[in-house]
Amino acid sequence: MGNNDEQPLPINDDETVQNIAIKDIKANPYQPRKTFDEQRLEDLAGSIKNHGILQPVVLRKTIVGYTIVVGERRFRAAQMAGLDQIPAIVKTLTDEEMMELAIIENLQREDLNAIEEAEGYRKLMDDLNLTQQQVAKRLSKSRPYIANMLRLLHLPISIANMIKDGRLSGAHGRTLLTVKDDYQMKRIAQQAVKEAWSVRYLEQYVNEHFGKKNETNSKNQATVKPKFIKQQERQLKEQYGSNVTIATRNKKGQITFEFTSEEEFKRLIHQLNEKYHRDL
């Protein structure tokens, strides 16, 4: 039903639902979402008029009233529906816990796009001083997944906007990042939107024009890579959450780890050091 589209905090048996006056409730200052779709709010307000609020909001008691922790859409829609009170559960939380829950609730939106998702992960890391591994654990996701999503934040703004408005997907964005050159990236993105390229077609295009071409011009690329080398590249990529290239020439070789930020560089060094000490 319309008013059940937000993911609530778990409610324990000993948590009492109270009716709290809407006039005593203030918005969450840590809410990362600043704009709300008016039409969807009106739809939710209509649902609330007909069925009431089925899932209580979560509040924190303050000196002068209450602050929303989870359920700001329901709160806004209840105001539009003309309600004087709203069912709520009051929790005791620190500022840090409020901030974390607001970001996590925002990450659980059904209409979240890949850029907004990546921005949510980055905000958790920056505001709460968390590592990628800690964010992954809190959200029950793999660390490589978090790392791959964060890579989208390195896209040019124009391409990020294409993902935000649905013209391209996050997978399109990750494929475009392999192009490296911003001008070429933007040109290809515009063409992909204009001709409605699938992710697979985009991958083929990028590999043909920027992958194999680069390999042909590379001094290190004398022959096609053996199958076992490609397997090792895939295994290392999965293990370290980073693109890995293995090049061999004249009985010598080189393993290259790709990173796109200082934070990713530090994480890779930490992982490699841990592996080294475990193997001693």
Automatic annotation (TrEMBL):
Belongs to the ParB family. It comes from the Bacteria. SUPFAM superfamilies: KorB DNA-binding domain-like (SSF109709), ParB/Sulfiredoxin (SSF110849). Residues 18-107 form the ParB-like N-terminal domain. The lineage of its organism: Bacteria, Bacillati, Bacillota, Bacilli, Bacillales. NCBIfam families: parB_part. InterPro entries: Chromosome_partition/occlusion (IPR050336), HTH_ParB/Spo0J (IPR041468), ParB/RepB/Spo0J (IPR004437), ParB/Sulfiredoxin_sf (IPR036086), ParB_dimer_C (IPR057240), ParB_N (IPR003115). Keywords: Chromosome partition, DNA-binding. Pfam families: HTH_ParB, ParB_C, ParB_N. The keyword Protein transport does not apply. This is ParB/RepB/Spo0J family partition protein. SMART domains: ParB (SM00470).
